[in-house]
Amino acid sequence: MTKWDKILIVSIIAISLFSIGVLTYIKNQTQVLYGIIEVSGVEQEVINLTEVDKTYTIKVENDDNYNIVEVNQGSIKFIEATCPDKDCIRIGNLDAPGEISVCLPNNVTIRVEGFMDGKDDLDSTTY
Q1: pTM of structure
Q2: Fold entry, domain 32-120
């Protein structure tokens, strides 16, 4: 390995670490996050996740079925459901704009939307 190979490798590592730092900084900027709960496509509740002081739960009922949603500062998730497969619970915390969890048997949806400086924040992640 020559001297120039070593300089190239160190340069690539330095640029990569710098890029990761910039992206992390941008993601952690002050952002208003809203948790939205929908039942059968109808918005039931909008929660400002950045203003939540302590964890609490909400029981969302749809006919004989129900889901329990846990609201934390900066995140929201399903913790209990009457559906048979419990996939909605396995999704876990939703804490970034564009993330969504759906309980299809119970027709309940929770999602996170985010706004920065009064403008829509673009979702740069695709799953």
Answers
A1: 0.69
A2: mini-chromosome maintenance (MCM) complex, domain 2 (2.60.320)
